[in-house]
């Protein structure tokens, strides 16, 4: 089976590609390697997959991994209406795992156009390719941000999500609506995953885990928004990847027969952790106390997230089991190694 993983140079896409390759699948990785955050980290992830920076730099050219059989990579924009269908036509893809998107709640206030290009136009192009090239299953990234100011805890997929409070959240809600339309009209299965605060080795530099660790090691103050009165369903990357791969591997024949083509799931740790407790765990692993700059809540932020993952447990036997203690420890170990921090 051949699987296209978009966002393969990104945090989650990199890890998903690794596991799929270990399981023996053919994987095509796609990423535009934009400069939203440090591109060298993206190139380093690709290097782990056997793709050199030299080969990754050329747009729209499919290159093979130097060290991992069955992996190919192409640098491409999803919004490229001409090149994306060519990739589908030549590579006989079976399943698409669309993890590429312009990420970040706060950045969507500064650069809204990039969210329209990548998350809306790009996603439409993915849907069109799935429709025209008989893709068996589209698994795609949504986000917990679609819940907006939802007060009901934990968040459930049956909750109303008509009130997003950031453009990023609005694009992710739009993706779900677009997927529903294509599943209904063209009869192929789509599965949307609402991710909840993913962290771990090779994580994104714009996320709290990374920002806090980097600042503490450099003896700089950390920005603690809403004066620390925040809670998040922090989910370790291995638990996220396990859920994604189980969905990719499960046969969708019964879903098609039962006309259950469109599915949405929360994917998280099924728990809510106080931000200040999370910071304490980082301090413990670094052996240093953080200088805390207590600030009001940021536009687009919510005070609390918590995923109800009962549906994912029932349908895929999903079992997140990485504790905050173990997850933070593994991230800190990677951070020290990657950045040569003593």
UniProtKB/TrEMBL annotation:
InterPro entries: Epimerase_deHydtase, NAD(P)-bd_dom_sf
Matching Pfam families: Epimerase (PF01370)
Gene3D superfamilies cross-referenced by the UniProt entry: NAD(P)-binding Rossmann-like Domain
Keywords: NAD
UniProt keyword NAD, yes or no: yes
Keyword NAD: yes
Domain of life: Bacteria
Descriptive protein name: NAD-dependent epimerase
Record organism: Seonamhaeicola marinus
């Amino acid at each position: 089976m051949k699987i296209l993983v978009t966002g393969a140079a990104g945090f989650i896409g990199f890890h998903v590609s690794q596991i799929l390759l270990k399981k023996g699948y053919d994987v095509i990785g796609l990423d535009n390697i934009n400069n939203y955050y440090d591109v060298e980290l993206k190139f380093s992830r690709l290097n782990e997959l056997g793709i050199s920076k030299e080969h990754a730099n050329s747009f729209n050219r499919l290159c093979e991994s130097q060290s991992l059989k069955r992996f190919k990579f192409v640098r491409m924009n999803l919004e490229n209406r001409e090149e994306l269908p060519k990739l589908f036509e030549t590579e006989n893809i079976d399943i698409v795992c669309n993890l590429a998107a312009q990420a970040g709640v706060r950045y969507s206030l500064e650069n809204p156009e990039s969210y329209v290009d990548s998350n809306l136009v790009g996603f439409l192009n993915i849907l069109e390719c799935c429709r025209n090239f008989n893709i068996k299953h589209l698994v795609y990234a949504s986000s917990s941000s679609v819940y907006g100011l939802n007060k009901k805890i934990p968040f459930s997929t049956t909750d109303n999500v008509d009130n997003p409070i950031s453009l990023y959240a609005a694009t992710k809600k739009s993706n779900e609506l677009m997927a529903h339309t294509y599943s209904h009209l063209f009869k192929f299965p789509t599965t949307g995953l609402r991710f909840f605060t993913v962290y771990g080795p090779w994580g994104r530099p714009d996320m709290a885990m990374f920002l806090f660790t980097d600042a503490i090691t450099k003896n700089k103050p950390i920005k603690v928004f809403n004066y620390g009165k925040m809670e998040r369903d922090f989910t370790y990357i291995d638990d996220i990847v396990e859920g994604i791969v189980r969905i990719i591997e499960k046969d969708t024949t019964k879903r098609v027969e039962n006309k259950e083509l469109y599915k949405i799931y929360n994917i998280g740790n099924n728990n809510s952790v106080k931000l200040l407790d999370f910071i304490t765990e980082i301090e413990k692993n670094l052996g240093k106390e953080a200088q805390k700059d207590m600030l009001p809540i940021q536009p687009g932020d919510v005070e609390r997230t918590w995923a109800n993952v009962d549906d994912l447990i029932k349908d895929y036997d999903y079992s997140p089991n990485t504790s905050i203690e173990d997850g933070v420890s593994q991230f800190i170990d990677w951070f020290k190694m990657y950045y040569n921090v003593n």
